[in-house]
Amino acid sequence: MNHFMSKNRWAAVIVTSFLVVALAVNIAYAKPTPVPGPKRGSQHQFDKTDVMLLARLVYGEARGESYTGQMAVAAVVVNRLQSGRFGSTIADVVYETDAFSVVNDGQINLTPDDIAVKAALGALNGKDPTRGALYYFNPAKTSNAWMWSRPVTGQIGSHLFMR
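Above: the chain sequence. Below: its structure as tokens.
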């Protein structure tokens, strides 16, 4: 009986090893899954990497805000991308020097929750509760004079939004 159990264990190890290798090869050679671009006339295509980067930014910048507040932060990144003045990819916009405090302090590396991911997807699919804002800040956490000099176009949760 022990001999039979030993053969079954080896068979399980071999099958499991095969499945792990097959999965690793599939991941390594898989093409990014496209995410529909914004419906606001954008020519941009997004993949899962873009979604997760944007979700990580949202989680770092706006966790604790409502879904709409988190989507508003994501929409600012999409608006910047569409403007053509801040970069040509989500990564260009997110990693622009000193653009977002979460990049500077490392919070960009936190794992986003489901709300942040849904907010990122909403913004990437054209939802924009900011009506075109290119900037935002939390007045309780920002003393930057330049941000305070911009005309405020609205407030969602703790963030003020500007063009």
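The longest strand covers residues 152-156.
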